[in-house]
# Entry
Amino acid sequence: MSDLISRKETYNELIESIDWLRERDYELYCVIGDSIRVCLDEQPTAYDIDKVVEELSNDVCEYENTNDEYCKWKINSVFPETINNPHAAERENIATTKYCPYCGKKIKAVE
# Structure
């Protein structure tokens, strides 16, 4: 994913705007440049929401295209009160887990 606002471009524009200071006080120019870089690095990243949604929807397509109404989880033979997640190497409590966190379908416990 790429930033909505490019940190590199923003940094270059800001440095360019204080370029006049380089010849007058190079040490101050460097301190301000470093401060700008630190400030930009500490800002949260803004992403293009449409691109993020598109990437996420591409990731879940394989589960959306199945015709199963349920996500089938096998009952654990060693711990029968748990069910095995078919998408990851995890066990979940059979009494509290109702929907699959990976595909969103209702869970059906099978032998």
Summary: The chain has a mean pLDDT of 81. The CA atoms of residues 59 and 96 lie 26 Å apart.
